[in-house]
Amino acid sequence: MDRPDEIVAGRVLLERAGAFDAVEERLGELLAISSDRGDEFSTIEILGQLADLRWRAGEWSSASAALASLERADPDAIWLFATRARVHAYRGDEAATVADAEHALELAGRSGAAQAEIAAEHAIGHLRLSQGDVAGATTMLARAWDVVRRCGFGDPADVAFVPDHVEALVELGRLDEAGPVVGWLEERGRILDRTYALAVGARCRGLLLAAAGDLAGAMASVDEAMERHEGVPMPFELARTSLVLGAIRRRDKQKRSAREALERALGIFDELGARLWAERTRAELARIGGRRPVVGELTETERRVAALAAAGRTNREIADTLFASVRTVEGHLSHVYAKLGIRSRTELAVFLDEPDDA
């Protein structure tokens, strides 16, 4: 039977080529062999790899089943907690996500398992992003990015949190920080020929361009991402990209095509059980028919901050324009979000029909 390191290497190569079905079949064969031989070490390794594969493929119930088997085989396995935390996060289960992620972080601290640490930080960061807590998401995802840079990870397939990190930075208006991360994702995808990285990299580039006010460039980039997703069996990422495309089309007054993209995203999120992302998509769909009533009234300063943010200005640029501090701008934006009943810069841009409507 293959050694565990050969199992990992073979799975990774096939997975990166998009051959998820072949990986699933091979891991199933190896699991049966290891179980028959009583090879507990290989069984634990294979179950962990199987659960991770199914999480990536959007087969979260099957991933949970593999994790349950892993727990029976080794209740203290670090990847049991790290992968289970990500499954919970994508489903929007806060208590379970935090509990498993924190335990994984504790185990990673003892063992120095950098990839497990990244996975746990990703779980909490993704949950916060899906809840609209962009600042909380950035705190966790920035830690994961620091680990990547410190340890020299170079394959985007190993660091699935990067698109979330970019989106959180863009939402906060930290475009100068987001740009190099997007560049890294695109460059590594090209060098290593990773279809997944090229797909999500194009989506991230679209987010960056949209935040800067270049809707035409943003749509071209996200259209490219949608094409590349055809070769990646990861429905959750496809739905994320379709949601971004719908939001950008909405801003560009393409209501019919925006609705089509958003309805596609919603169908996938509902089927997967991604509750929080489905809610966000429904909110985007609701805006196509007309603007929601404003919740509360904005002050003159808040209107100016909102207009500049919707026009694609960074928080630093807004602060310079208004002769204020970045912290003051962040405070005004928080008040704008609360009064308008929205949660992010992207939602602000969608909420306003034109940047100067504020």
Compose a concise summary of this entry.
Helix content is 78%, strand content 0%. The protein has 19 helices and no strands.
Provide structural commentary:
The chain has 358 residues and is mostly helical. Among the domains are: 80 residues, no CATH class; 51 residues, no CATH class; 58 residues, Orthogonal Bundle (Arc Repressor Mutant, subunit A), CATH 1.10.10.10. 78% of the residues lie in helices and 0% in strands. The protein contains 19 helices and no strands. Helix 12 packs antiparallel against helix 13, helix 13 packs antiparallel against helix 14 and helix 17 packs across helix 18. The longest helix is centred in the N-terminal third of the chain and has 18 residues. The chain is globular and about 70 Å long. The termini are far apart. The C terminus is likely disordered.
Number of helices: 19
Major sheet description: none
Q: Tell me the series of helices and strands, N- to C-terminal.
A: HHHHHHHHHHHHHHHHHHH
Q: Structural class, from secondary structure content?
A: mainly alpha
Separation of the first and last Cα atoms: 65 Å
Number of strands: 0
The coarse overall form would be globular
> What fraction of the residues are assigned to beta strands by DSSP?
under 5%
Question: What's the overall average pLDDT, rounded?
Answer: 87
Instruction: Show unreliable segments.
Output: 354-358
Helix content: over 70%
Task: Walk me through the topology.
Layout (H helix, E strand, L loop, with lengths): L3 H13 L3 H18 L2 H17 L3 H14 L4 H14 L2 H18 L2 H18 L2 H18 L10 H10 L3 H18 L2 H17 L3 H15 L5 H17 L3 H18 L2 H14 L11 H11 L4 H8 L3 H15 L4 H7 L7
